[in-house]
């Protein structure tokens, strides 16, 4: 994904804003396009830049959110000489409401939401000629991406609440509960699904290569349905999960890495994958929690997501022997949603109503990982334990573990290696955010 030099400069300005304010501004780039021009009257020529701007901005501070959630979930530790707060505040669960791990993901996600709102406003005001199908496609894609970003916010904020309505920067909507936020996100995805179903055979813009296989309305709709299945699982609506998965891209015996991804490159002013680190570094390392290897079953191929270091690394009493090596280069794509997650959602949605069907999905996961079939009990508790175990290894380092353990009320089972450590239930609302 090539980004203009102008956009890169603006991104830097937004990055500074992340550390100095939590007002819901930002979202001013749209890949170098003029925001007033886009919001006042979106032209056909501006549309590709607007969509590209949204897709690019979705990657901003992605590493901050994934790192913090992975630390909370005791998947890995992040030791960096530039900021000891990762092994201090974050591991200890003593969170500051006015520092980067609170403000950066919050502002970055809302900046994307503002980009979407500006583009949708411009679409309403356009004097250019778009067909009804083209308009439906634009709205369907943008509102699906907006829903994803809102879900990212809700994953962090949880019971602290969040804003859903930010369409008017001068009159922001109220903070809503976690339950109301998930309902609004699900409703937004459902409305986007209707638009995508009416969007014809192609979009009036291009998506990145991370959307290969999902770059037509009918295929993008499958991503929309999968994302809504995740939301409905968070809400505990398993009947809805199963219905949504039927229309998603879930394929029980298909490629588990098929899905939708963030893309990165070293081209021009584009950005490399911020979650990649070379092996055996000493000043900046992501090291798996020791339990990831210790708890693994023999022959589980998913353990190769970590690699034994030449020498252990230590920081303030925390020790790591295995480097996280999910990404082997700085241009590897980062998943937004993969088929493997959908199969696991299918298992979860069946664990109470149809245990044998849940086991069938569990076995698809286990067998792909080189493990034998499940032979445990078919009780709800046993299946919950097994599904959470499989999600731990299949989705390692992708931002799920902390959320999973929280939604099953099992955060107290996550390990603390120091007496001062604890796992928080939510990230604080940024200090400068007006409630």
TrEMBL record:
GO cellular component: cell outer membrane
Membrane-spanning intervals of the chain: none
Domain RagB/SusD: 334-409
Record InterPro entries: SusD_RagB_dom, TPR-like_helical_dom_sf
Top-level taxon in the UniProt lineage: Bacteria
Gene3D superfamilies: 1.25.40.390
Statement: the UniProt record of this protein carries the keyword Zinc: no
Localization in the cell: Cell outer membrane
Assigned keywords, A-Z: Cell outer membrane, Membrane, Signal
Family under the similarity heading: Belongs to the SusD family.
Protein's recorded name: RagB/SusD domain-containing protein
Organism this protein belongs to: Winogradskyella pacifica
